[in-house]
């Protein structure tokens, strides 16, 4: 089969013939129809993000495709079924703290690297092999819309954070990093889950105006200035801020994370999902007395639980999460370089770059 291969960090991906995956028990072989390209994918492939990725590798985290073949343990999936390929692969020999690899992108620790030995190759290929539990039934879709359905992989990241926060309908959410790729998706997901209001901070006035235009009065935008940002974030909300979700990238400082976190109400919840500090810089400092006396919960969340896939699909199927928010730019596998350039071009809010092998 044809695939795009990363042979060495800092070198362009090469599109060539590679051996097709060999199906085993507990696995599903999927014909890839559409695979999303992250805005920072080129940074990963240049080695700038220091992601744990064993080379050579076929990159590509997640895809929309059709089942080609299932292992003998599959009871419901059938060849031809449309599926979401979840790239979050967990080891099966420790239910409490499974090792995790993000297929075609990264891994957590030595155990995650061990998983990459078998499930390392991702979706920039004509076929991808995934564990049976990672092939999530989509139901029938229009093949022409497969690229738009890759938005699910993007939305699953903030969805995992909001599930970790225990977001309840009617609550107010502050999305730190709301003008970015994952953050803007987080605004849409929070509203789809029933948030009464989303406070959306940022420095890009055009991006903030775009959020106002898209979502109206349920979103309260705030331009960050570095001066009493916490106070202005609190004032923008119609009432107490119940949940803060941080999705800022590695390039951001800890100052806006701290300003957002400290806007949460007494007994509020703060979930950290971004990349701040991953490339160095100061650590996040939150006042011990403030945390303790206000009974604030702060937790980290990497990605999403496996069960989130099904409910995320249901949000999209119901129309609560409108996938038409997203524009789609599609590229053939032979133009993987063009896809990477387009994804990194700067327009990341509600914009999908997709490879169609």
TrEMBL record:
User: Domain Enoyl reductase (ER) spans what residues?
Assistant: 10-352
Stored InterPro entries: ADH-like_C, ADH-like_N, ER, GroES-like_sf, NAD(P)-bd_dom_sf, Zn-ADH-like_protein
What Pfam families does the annotation carry? ADH_N, ADH_zinc_N
User: Gene3D superfamilies, from UniProt?
Assistant: Medium-chain alcohol dehydrogenases, catalytic domain (3.90.180.10), NAD(P)-binding Rossmann-like Domain (3.40.50.720)
* Molecular function via GO: oxidoreductase activity
Q: Which residues form a coiled coil?
A: none
Task: Please state what the protein is called.
Answer: Alcohol dehydrogenase
């Amino acid at each position: 089969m044809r695939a795009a291969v990363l042979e060495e960090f800092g070198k362009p991906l090469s599109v060539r013939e590679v051996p097709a995956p060999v199906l085993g028990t507990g696995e599903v072989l999927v014909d890839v129809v559409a695979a999303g390209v992250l805005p920072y994918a080129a940074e990963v492939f240049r080695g700038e993000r220091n992601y744990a990725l064993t080379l050579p590798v076929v990159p590509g985290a997640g895809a929309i495709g059709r089942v080609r073949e299932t292992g003998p343990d599959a009871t419901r999936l059938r060849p031809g079924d449309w599926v979401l390929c979840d790239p979050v692969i967990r080891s099966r020999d420790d239910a409490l703290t499974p090792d995790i690899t993000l297929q075609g992108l990264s891994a957590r620790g030595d155990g995650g690297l061990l998983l990459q030995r078998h499930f390392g190759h991702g979706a920039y290929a004509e076929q991808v092999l995934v564990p049976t539990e990672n092939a999530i039934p989509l139901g029938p879709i229009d093949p022409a819309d497969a690229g738009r359905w890759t938005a699910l992989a993007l939305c699953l990241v903030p969805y995992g954070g909001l599930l970790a926060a225990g977001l309840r309908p009617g609550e107010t959410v502050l999305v730190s990093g709301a003008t970015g790729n994952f953050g803007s998706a987080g605004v849409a997901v929070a509203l789809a889950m029933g948030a009464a209001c989303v406070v959306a901070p940022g420095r890009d006035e055009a991006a903030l105006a775009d959020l106002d235009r898209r979502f109206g009065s349920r979103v309260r935008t705030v331009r960050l200035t570095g001066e009493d940002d916490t106070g202005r974030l609190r004032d923008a909300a119609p009432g107490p801020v119940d949940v803060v979700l941080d999705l800022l990238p590695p390039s951001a400082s800890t100052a806006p994370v701290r300003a957002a976190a400290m806007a949460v109400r007494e007994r509020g919840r703060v979930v950290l999902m971004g990349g701040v500090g991953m490339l160095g810089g100061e650590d996040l400092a939150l006042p011990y007395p403030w945390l303790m006396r206000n009974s604030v919960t702060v937790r980290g969340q990497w990605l999403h639980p496996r069960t989130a896939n099904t409910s995320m699909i249901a949000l999209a199927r119901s129309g609560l999460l409108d996938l038409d928010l997203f524009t789609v730019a599609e590229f053939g596998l032979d133009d993987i370089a063009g896809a990477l350039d387009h994804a990194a071009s700067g327009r990341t809010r509600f914009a999908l770059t997709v490879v169609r092998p």
